[in-house]
Design a protein that fits this description.
CATH class: Alpha Beta
Radius of gyration: 18 Å
CATH superfamily: Aldolase class I
CATH topology: TIM Barrel
Shape: globular
Order of helices and strands: HEHEHEHEEEEHHEHEEEHHH
Structural class: alpha/beta
CATH architecture: Alpha-Beta Barrel
Number of helices: 10
Length: 264
């Protein structure tokens, strides 16, 4: 199943496995250079998966850098035991170095954030790899349109156009950036829909709690991991329109049709 099909048919939940990362991207707030929580608590994982077992979910494994996790393959194997779960991994390319077999598994969505920024004379990369060509292995480039992307678009036009295929996901530069100065908001109706089940609610494996929204790393409302809270979340009865939803400047998109139908 291709990524677009999964986005339209499955709810998405981020599993923040670790906040540790081997990179320090200036616009990221979801990392620490301290090496910690590098082995996932499998009992906790199995409990969470058991609570979610009745729902169709794309489970995104990230951090931090998930490639640092010592038992990442065990985590993926546990998720794959459920037919209604699709494991997805977002890496800065360290997974490609440490767990290359993950890229060969067509049942795992592998997404790589490799380009860090665009400059007048070069494109900065996070790893020593080439971006993915169009492929059938569910390996995807994630490219963030930083301010330098627009500033130096013409300089790198050939390279950028080379990435414009079905295996590249373009992401808008967003309010997590230190230098964010765009105040344009998505329509209120979209933000209200998003608040009921954000594009990416979070299971935090370091703090072992449930976080309302991964886009609000520092101030997102948190909940205990209980079967009741998980079911209420999946039935759109847990989350509310919070203060930060009023101020949110994230671009809200890609709502699956099922999400609109269930909320409305």
């Amino acid at each position: 199943m291709r990524l677009q099909e999964i986005q339209n048919s499955h709810f998405a939940i981020d599993f923040f496995l670790t906040m540790s990362c081997n990179k320090t991207c200036e616009y990221c707030t979801s990392y620490t250079i301290e090496q910690r929580n590098l082995t996932v608590d499998m009992d906790f994982l199995e409990r969470v998966l058991g609570y979610l077992k009745d729902y169709k979910i794309r489970i995104s494994l990230l951090g931090g850098e998930p490639g640092l996790v010592k038992n990442l393959k065990d985590v993926i194997d546990a998720i794959k035991r459920y037919d209604n779960f699709v494991p997805s991994v977002l890496s800065n390319s360290f997974v490609r170095k440490r767990y290359p077999e993950i890229l060969e598994d067509p049942n795992v969505i592998y997404m790589e954030h490799l380009i860090e920024d665009f400059h007048s004379d070069k494109i900065s990369k996070l790893g020593n790899y080439q971006c993915f060509e169009e492929n059938e292995l569910n390996n995807y480039n994630v490219v963030i349109k930083t301010p330098n992307y627009f500033k130096y678009y013409d300089t790198h036009k050939n390279e950028i156009e080379h990435l414009s295929h079905k295996n590249t996901q373009w992401k808008t530069y967003n309010s997590r950036s230190k230098n964010f100065d765009v105040v344009e908001q998505s329509p209120v109706i979209d933000r209200k829909l998003c608040s009921k089940f954000p594009q990416v609610p979070v299971i935090d494996f370091e703090n072992k709690n449930l976080r309302h929204c991964s886009k609000r790393t520092l101030d997102s409302k948190t909940f205990d991991i209980t079967e009741e809270n998980i079911h209420n979340m999946m039935r759109l009865n847990l989350f509310q329109y919070e203060d930060y939803c009023h101020n949110c400047c994230e671009k809200i998109s890609n709502f699956p049709l099922i999400k609109y139908m269930e909320i409305l």
